[in-house]
Write a structure and sequence with these properties.
2 copies of one chain form a homodimer.
Chain A lengths: L16 H30 L3 H13 L4 E2 H8 L3 H13 L3 E4 L8 E4 L1 H21 L5 H20 L2 H5 L1
Antiparallel strand pairs in A: 1-3, 2-3
Helix pairs in contact in A: 1-5, 2-5, 3-4
The structure holds a DNA duplex (30 and 30 nucleotides).
DNA sequence: GGCAGATATTTTAGGTTTAAACTATCTCCC
DNA sequence: GGGAGATAGTTTAAACCTAAAATATCTGCC
């Protein structure tokens, strides 16, 4: 998938533009592979999807207080519209319920008892899949990878949309 | 987006199942953030999409021989059906053309002159965006990240679907 | 009190993805 | 030659995503 490197490396420490590009391509490949594998297992074993699982996961962490839909949207990195659709599906399946809140614009949702049970089973399986997929990474490598990804995330956040548009 | 770590770490070197999970969540967050930023720029600056760019990119690397659609599908990690749709859009825009091949099941495609020009402009911009997004990573960090992501990729490939199904 | 602008969500229109079923073509082997 | 099964691609139905417009509610200021 990667052509043989044909251009000789420049001498010295001049920033090599291609390096970031290569890191990004590898990052994307890894993320895509994991997503596909996990999505297939969720479909086969639980007849559900990854976005639905992510939604339930956010609510599970939030506890009985639940979360406003907008908060879920920010956590999942998807638009409000997507969250509206997911929420109505999960509610139809009885996995989440709506809470009243003082501000009537806000729709706060939380897991039902059924939702908690289903999520617990899915989360257990999910953790096992991820562990199997990353099994060849030593603890120290995983640690190091986590640190570098944190730095990457900070670099991404520091770069504003305006700066990028340049 | 990440709750404060509330459970004390277990003693010793017992493999911590949560570690893989945390690596995966960070990986996914980084990939999603980059994808969203880049997709927005492609839309605003070139009125195109990331999958279309990826398609053109594969053809650009392939040269005048072009590629069978199935090959593109494997390179982009998407299904044949998705590639069919992308190809018909790109052909309608005059960016790619179909080549005859001995095996008449195979549809081989390559860039047109227009496609090459458009791709060159997009690739230049794309490289700049990625460079800006990853700018805070030192060369040595990028290097290290690339190595770890390669190991990760190999770990993912080694884990067969059957193994995962458990 | 009431209106202007901010905020939360839903709706809409269009594009993407997938898996599975289907069509077309080729290859192998009798 | 002629079928059985493999292979390449297209179509279809359903889920998800986005951006932008629309709706509902709140907040602050006159």
């Amino acid at each position: 998938m990667e052509p043989a490197l044909s251009l000789p490396d420049k001498l010295g420490g001049a920033p090599d533009g291609k390096r970031s590009l290569r890191v990004w391509l590898r990052l994307l490949t890894c993320a895509s592979m994991v997503e596909r594998r996990i999505a297939a297992r969720f479909r086969d074993d639980f007849e559900t999807t990854l976005p639905r699982f992510d939604f339930l996961s956010a609510l599970d962490r939030a506890g009985p207080e639940g979360l406003p839909l907008g908060e879920v949207s920010r956590m999942l990195l998807v638009t409000n519209g997507a969250v509206t659709g997911l929420a109505s599906g999960l509610k139809a399946d009885g996995l989440i319920e709506t809470l009243d809140s003082a501000d009537r614009r806000v729709r706060r949702v939380r897991l039902t008892a059924l939702g908690r049970d289903r999520f617990a089973a899915m989360a257990r399986a999910h953790e096992g899949w991820i562990e199997a997929l990353f099994a060849d990474l030593a603890d120290s490598e995983a640690e190091q990878l986590m640190i570098l990804l944190d730095r990457t995330k900070r670099s991404l956040q520091r770069t504003t949309p305006e700066e990028l548009a340049g």
